[in-house]
Amino acid sequence: MNLQLHSAISNIKATISITGSKSETNRLLLLQALYPNLVLENTSNSDDSEVMTKALQNAQFSNTDSQLIDIHHAGTAMRFLTAFFAVSEGKEVVLTGSQRMTERPIKVLVEALQQLGAQIAYEKEVGFPPIRIKGQKITQSKVSIPANVSSQYISALLLVAPKLENGIELTLVGEITSVPYIKMTLALLNEIGVETKFEENVITVKPLTTNSKQQTVTVESDWSSASYFFSLAALSNEAAIVLSSYKESSLQGDSALVEIYAKMGVEARFEANQLTLVKQPNFEYQSVTFDLNNTPDIAQTIVVTCLGLGIGCHLTGLHTLKIKETDRLEALRIELTKLGAAITVTNDSLTLEPSKSILPNIAIDTYNDHRMAMAFAPLALRVPIIINNAEVVSKSYPDFWSDLQSLGFQCTEI
């Protein structure tokens, strides 16, 4: 499905309800599989979370000797389930995914689990899915892992740690990437009663053998999804967009959007679990520089906003973007260039030159990447734009296009 987007409005006043954080939901789904007395509310309705739910349910009720589990494009599910099945005693699964998933590295996590005694073998190319996992009782507790890789590898180990006989003492080697996501994982473990410690480059997680008391955890709404409304507010002439449910002290690293977009003319106000985004009148725009080492998922939204505002940006800390749903840095370079932008990328940075012109009616390719589709959509406030394979948004935000239409956007299938 290709959509042509057009907006005849420039003043946005609306209230949008966004479902739970995909990042929090997928962590809690795994913990719920380990501790069934956990009750979850406001979970994400994303494809990734549905894939995670289905995989865990199928594994729970399957009695077959070996089971094939296909997680499609869901990178989080691949990492988390690799650790989950490695410690699921007596289970044997082959974990696979889409063509792109078989190109995304898993070796760092596999080697860390093997240090602990896990039995994992590659079905095809060494270092990449599909992988065959034979669940074991894990008694070893000391493990090290490079700290500058995807934080999902680290979180995967931490999430299964309380079920291990001796917990985990995890040493992070080198400079740590995406610290907020690691802290989110630890905070969720703490919430269900797991004792953790994070000092310098060592994380310790104590075992929690039983969780007999029923406990309800409400998932906060997704900050990554909120990023597109920050962009819309910035690119509008006037905006008052109310989003729920959000809190000022969030576990999600992408809540850094509040400070980032304050430098692009958007004020964020919190009241009664609601977040209101207000466009600042007469704001003086200038080029911006951000280190997104802790929040790489919002890079696409930020650079597109800057293009729409006619300002330049220099973004660093982006090395993990090359192993996402696509090579996001190269995808941004290609698509922004089509719009007339002057952009350069390296392995971990992106620089956009200021420009006042955007070419209209350009078709943006999305590369099976939900964030490419949603990040470029707000440009419709400036010029008509076409989003190819627009249905890819279901990976994290299935209601995105209907929510955009509720703001007054025309979304025409072509």
From TrEMBL:
InterPro entries: Enolpyruvate_Tfrase_dom, Enolpyruvate_Tfrase_sf, EPSP_synthase, EPSP_synthase_CS, RNA3'P_cycl/enolpyr_Trfase_a/b. CDD domains: EPSP_synthase. GO terms for biological process: amino acid biosynthetic process; aromatic amino acid family biosynthetic process; chorismate biosynthetic process. Phosphoenolpyruvate binds at K22, G75, R104, Q152, R328, R371, K395. Pathway: Metabolic intermediate biosynthesis; chorismate biosynthesis; chorismate from D-erythrose 4-phosphate and phosphoenolpyruvate: step 6/7. It is found in: Cytoplasm. Keywords: Amino-acid biosynthesis, Aromatic amino acid biosynthesis, Cytoplasm, Transferase. It is an enzyme of class 2 (transferase). Residues 9-404 form the Enolpyruvate transferase domain. The keyword Secreted does not apply. Its EC number is 2.5.1.19. Belongs to the EPSP synthase family. NCBIfam families: aroA. Catalyzes the transfer of the enolpyruvyl moiety of phosphoenolpyruvate (PEP) to the 5-hydroxyl of shikimate-3-phosphate (S3P) to produce enolpyruvyl shikimate-3-phosphate and inorganic phosphate. Monomer. HAMAP family: EPSP_synth. This is 3-phosphoshikimate 1-carboxyvinyltransferase. It comes from Flavobacterium succinicans.
